[in-house]
From TrEMBL:
Reaction catalysed by this enzyme: guanosine(10) in tRNA + S-adenosyl-L-methionine = N(2)-methylguanosine(10) in tRNA + S-adenosyl-L-homocysteine + H(+)
Pfam family, one: UPF0020
Organism: Nyctibius bracteatus
Name of the protein this chain belongs to: tRNA (guanine(10)-N(2))-methyltransferase TRMT11
GO molecular function annotations of the record: tRNA (guanine(10)-N2)-methyltransferase activity; tRNA binding
Length: 436
């Protein structure tokens, strides 16, 4: 997310140290404070950003680092006519108030000339201490210490204010608010973009993009979901209400002006005019677990597969293999994304069989990132971000079938069976343990 947002603001990702997965603190080279503030206006992953004045593996190293910090960098924030306060934050350890005061007092060698103001200071300084990630093995002294000037906070409050629990219209697979905003940031969504979701469902992914000023639209094969009809997904509610729909969701957050439309459509069938229409495609395809994977069939197919809605709207559906879903999605993105536009989607994975080779590829799309979210001990899903780097040509239409790339992913057509096989094994093991 940070890398995507830095590139959105024409910045480069370059750390003074390697990204440490065992630490919540990163040191980044950001060209300007303005860029840092722009990044924090978008991110839901980062909590705060600071201008680093000193750091070290011990208190002595921190103090030595601070003493070598250029004075011209510090003096504008230490003037006698300014006010300030110092916070201390410890990760994985709680300090008493006297311990905190002792650590703050140890910084008296810094040339603070202003007055302390705890309620409304002009400048806020932080001591950050990293005690590792293991709550069962907390060291006496921190592994690393940082001191810096606070610049801005991230947008963590969006997770609560856009919580699915408070949303007007939800479904079985409505996307968590935090993940929705992360996806929009991976897609580098910006004001006046046009963002499309081909598996729109209840529109959760449209909301995060609209929050960042993009115009949003989507399609879904489910007539009842698009029109807000049928059984409700909430507990203790049997049927959906008259105003439970995607438009009402955007209206709830004051984003209705960014809503273009949602159409009942099969993502495997072309409905759009030719051309580069979308700045980003952000979607969560069905995996066959909570929602069925299906596409339009023909009238010649078995009548048993016909489905009827409350409006007597009839269509015939057939199975839509996961491999076909994702390759159709890549082909669509290659054709309809603008140059530099991004495709962001979730790819379900059976972990014992996962390798990088099974990530679907297309010659017009470059893989930008591949992040894992664990679902269970044996399954996960990968957040795949791809960027359009080449113009789509008709000969590209089936190029994804070449070089044996199509066959490895065929194995994921049985993701549902593998997912539930793990559940079955766990239940059997629990029953066996209970009998003991």
């Amino acid at each position: 997310e940070i890398t995507s947002l830095l590139s959105l603001y024409d910045g480069q990702f370059s750390g003074e140290q390697e990204i440490r997965v065992d630490s919540p603190f990163w040191i980044l080279n950001i060209p300007s404070e303005e860029m840092a503030r722009g990044l924090m206006k978008r991110t839901v992953c980062a909590k705060s950003v600071f201008e680093l004045w000193g750091h070290g593996g011990s208190a002595g190293e921190l103090y030595a680092s601070l003493k070598s910090c250029p004075m011209e960098k510090m003096l504008p924030y230490l003037r006698s006519d300014s006010t300030y306060k110092v916070h201390i934050h410890t990760f994985n350890k709680t300090l008493t108030q006297p311990q905190k005061i002792k650590k703050i007092d140890a910084l008296e060698f810094l040339p603070f000339k202003g007055r302390v103001n705890l309620k409304n200071p002009e400048h806020i300084f932080w001591i950050l201490e990293d005690y590792g990630m293991d709550p069962n093995n907390v060291p006496e002294e921190p592994f690393h210490l940082y001191f810096g000037r606070w610049i801005a906070d991230g947008q963590r409050e969006l997770i609560e204010s856009y919580s699915v629990k408070k949303r007007h219209f939800i479904g079985n697979t409505s996307m968590d608010a935090c993940l929705s905003f992360i996806m929009a940031n991976h897609g580098r969504v910006k004001p006046n973009d046009v963002v499309y979701d081909p598996f729109v469902g209840t529109g959760g992914l449209l909301i995060s993009s609209a929050h960042f000023g993009a115009y949003v639209c989507g399609t879904d094969i489910d007539y009842n979901t698009i029109h807000g009809l049928g059984k409700a997904s909430r507990k203790n509610q049997k049927w959906r209400g008259p105003d439970e729909n995607i438009r009402a969701n955007l209206r709830q957050y004051g984003l209705e002006k960014y809503y273009l439309d949602a159409l009942v459509s099969d993502s495997s069938r072309p409905i759009w005019r030719k051309g580069m229409l979308f700045d980003a495609i952000i979607t969560d395809p069905p995996y066959g677990i909570r929602e069925a994977t299906r596409r339009m069939g023909s009238q010649k197919e078995t009548v048993k597969s016909a489905e009827r809605s409350t409006e007597n709207h009839v269509f015939v559906s057939s199975n839509y293999h996961l491999s076909d879903i994702f390759f159709d999605l890549l082909k669509f993105a290659a054709e309809y994304l603008v140059m530099g536009g991004r495709l962001v989607y979730w790819l379900p994975i059976y972990r014992p069989e996962y390798t990088e080779e099974i990530i679907p590829r297309h010659p017009c799309l470059k893989l930008i990132s591949n992040c894992e979210q664990m679902l269970s001990s044996h399954t996960s899903r990968r957040l795949i971000t791809m960027e359009k780097v080449e113009e789509f040509k008709d000969q590209d239409q089936n190029s994804y079938l070449l070089d044996g790339q199509y066959m490895p992913y065929r194995g994921h057509n049985s993701f549902r069976e593998k997912y539930f096989s793990g559940v079955t094994k766990r239940i059997a093991k629990e029953e066996k343990d209970n009998q003991k």
